[in-house]
Write a structure and sequence with these properties.
This protein is α+β, with helices and mostly antiparallel strands. Helix content is 38%, strand content 30%. Strands 2-1-4-5-6-7-3 form a seven-stranded antiparallel sheet, with helices on one face.
Length: 170
Amino acid sequence: MNNTRNIKRFWLVMGTVVAPLALYFSFMNNRFVDIETPLSSAEVVRADTSKAIYNKLGGSGAQIRFDDAVLSEAETSRGVNWLNEAPASAKTAVDRMEGSVHMGIALRLKHNIQVTVQYNGKEIYVTKNGRFNQDSRYILHHQALKDYLDQELEGTYYGGNLAKEEQEET
């Protein structure tokens, strides 16, 4: 009889402690993965950027190197503001990214959350990675951010801009 009471107490305690914790973690993870949830500059632990730089070698050879940098607080804040100010109508959910990445920005947030902005010269892809490998990805239509990325990529494609050259071909 005493053993049955201990088992009931155990499950009562487990139910009152574990269930709320599971709900809390589920809520917090989904909160950061939802594309409508605004980001906070205060939650950004680190912001990195990387861009591909194409150079000609002798003959018909080419070299691709990657230029990595850490964004300043002002640049990070500006990027977060651009992501937050975009309305839902400027976001199109997608399953995967098309083309190759010419420039990327990685925002590492508290609680092991990461937001990546990837630009292929045509579209801006935003991916929010949450805990437990949950993520959401969308195309962001934001002219100011696109202009910034194009400006950053100026001169990185054999001295020109790959996005402009691709647009001229079409």
